[in-house]
C-alpha cells in the first residue's frame, strides 16, 4: 500500500498544500488574527515539515508538539472547525482525492483534544 505521504504528492505536493493552507488561514476572518505577527515563511515551513513527517515522509519535525503550541490560545470549537474547513479547501485546491482528504481530516480532528481550550 502506498503511504499517505506518497498519495499527497510527496514533499513537493505536501509543501504546496501546506503553503495554500497557511494562505487560506491568513484570509479566513475567523482565525486570521491568530497570525498577525507571524513569520509566514516559517509558518509554511513548519506546517509542511509537520505534515510531511506525519504522513510517513522523510522530514523530521523539530517544532513544538500540538499541546505546547496551542497552550493558552483558548481555541473554541468554531475556530477549530474553521481550521479543518481551511484544510479541506487546501486539499481540494490541490486536487487531493476523496480518500486522502478523509484521512488527513481524520488525523487533524484526532488532535482536537491537544489543541482546544488549553
Written overview of the protein:
With 118 residues, the chain is mainly alpha-helical. It has one domain: Globin-like. 64% of the residues lie in helices and 0% in strands. Helix 5 packs antiparallel against helix 6 (98-110). This is Hemoglobin. Its cofactor is heme.
What does this entry show, briefly?
GO terms for molecular function: heme binding; metal ion binding; oxygen binding. With 118 residues, the protein is an all-alpha fold. The protein has seven helices and no strands.
Q: What is the terminal separation in angstroms?
A: 37 Å
Query: What is the domain total for the residues?
Result: 1
Q: What does the average pLDDT come to?
A: 94
> Which structural class is indicated by helix and strand composition?
mainly alpha
Cofactor: heme
GO molecular function: heme binding; metal ion binding; oxygen binding
Binding site for heme: 70
Keywords: Heme, Iron, Metal-binding, Transport
Amino acid at each position: 500500500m502506498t503511504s499517505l505521504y506518497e498519495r499527497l504528492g510527496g514533499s513537493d505536493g505536501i509543501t504546496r498544500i501546506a503553503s495554500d493552507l497557511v494562505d487560506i488561514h491568513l484570509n479566513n476572518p475567523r482565525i486570521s488574527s491568530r497570525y498577525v505577527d507571524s513569520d509566514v515563511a516559517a509558518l509554511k515551513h513548519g506546517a509542511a515539515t509537520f505534515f510531511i513527517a506525519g504522513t510517513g515522509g522523510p522530514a523530521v519535525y523539530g517544532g513544538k508538539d500540538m499541546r505546547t503550541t496551542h497552550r493558552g490560545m483558548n481555541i473554541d470549537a468554531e475556530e477549530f472547525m474553521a481550521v479543518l474547513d481551511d484544510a479541506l479547501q487546501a486539499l481540494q485546491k490541490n486536487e487531493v482525492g476523496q480518500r486522502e482528504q478523509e484521512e488527513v481530516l481524520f488525523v487533524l480532528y484526532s488532535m482536537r483534544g491537544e489543541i482546544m481550550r488549553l
